[in-house]
Design brief:
single chain, alpha+beta, Heat Shock Protein 90, Transcription Regulator spoIIAA, 2 domains, 9 strands, globular
Length: about 250
């Protein structure tokens, strides 16, 4: 590991995602990463950290693990997540079929697919009782708040305007609000994503659940005004077609 490495010791608590974001922001500022690079690094690193917290340590926040980020070259960022949870190789999962229609889509499973798509190198090893997940991205390849939700209701249609970040920490709030709206009998749910800066697989999971439930009951979920970062995540997840997202004007 190079001498410019920075390491965080994280608790197994999703609240730690704010510290992860701060470190990635600092690295991006240091390297003058492009907006695309910054989005990719946030997405991949937070996906792996979230997986460790959610699935590696499901019994609570008493565990700790580490995230180390360094620069093996001026134009390359490397992140290593090391934990002592039960051995698990996320790269052994079958590839996600992003061409499946909405009704055949599984609710989860997109996290590692997103990581593979936005990083150049993904490596897993289990050594000395620890899971070690390493990822790297070549740079220049081509707000800190959690998601804010505002709802506007018109007869049987509702528009949800999302802003900020939709990740493992903020998505449960949206999931609860969506569940309440569906239970109230709305038939059309419009997600206005014009102010949404970031979405992880946890946010995509909420969108997929809502779209599948609405379609099964004869309703529809619509997604409008995707920001470039969110559009990229939808694209590599195969959700532009599955959700019927209209191309930009």
């Amino acid at each position: 590991m190079s001498t410019n490495a920075q390491t965080l010791t994280l608790r197994s608590d999703l609240a730690e995602l704010s510290r992860v974001k701060a470190l990635v922001d600092a690295i991006c500022d240091q390297t003058h990463a492009s907006e695309a690079d910054a989005s990719a690094l946030h997405l991949a690193i937070e996906e792996i950290v979230t997986n460790v917290i959610t699935y590696g340590y499901p019994d609570g926040p008493q565990h700790t693990f580490t995230l180390t980020i360094d620069l093996p070259a001026d134009d390359r960022v490397r992140a290593v997540v090391t934990d002592d949870a039960p051995a698990f190789n996320p790269l052994a999962r079958a590839d996600v079929n992003t061409a499946l229609p909405l009704e055949e889509r599984p609710v989860g499973g997109l996290g590692i697919h997103l990581v593979r798509q936005v990083m150049d190198v993904c490596l897993y090893e289990h050594r000395d009782g620890r899971n070690i997940f390493t990822m790297e991205r070549q740079l220049n390849r081509g707000s800190a708040s959690t998601a804010r939700i505002a709802a506007t209701k018109l007869e049987s249609a509702v528009t949800l305007a999302l802003a900020g970040r939709l990740d493992g920490l903020s998505s449960p709030e949206l999931e609860q609000q969506v569940a309440a709206l569906l239970a109230s009998g709305i038939r059309t749910l419009v997600f206005d994503l014009s102010a949404l800066d970031y979405v992880s697989s946890a946010g995509l999971r909420v969108f997929i659940i809502a779209a599948k439930k609405l379609k099964a009951s004869g309703g529809v979920a619509q997604f409008s005004s995707l920001t470039p970062a969110v559009h990229d995540v939808f694209h590599i997840s195969g959700l532009l077609t599955a959700f019927g997202v209209a191309p930009p004007a």
